[in-house]
Amino acid sequence: MTDTDLGTATIVYEHPEEGTVEEEVENKDIAYFQDHWMLKRDEDESGNDLVRRIPAQRVYYVDRSVEAFEEEVKTVKDQVESLASDLRSKLPGRTQREESHSGTGEPVEISVESDDSDTGGHSTE
Question: pTM of this prediction?
Answer without folding.
Answer: 0.51
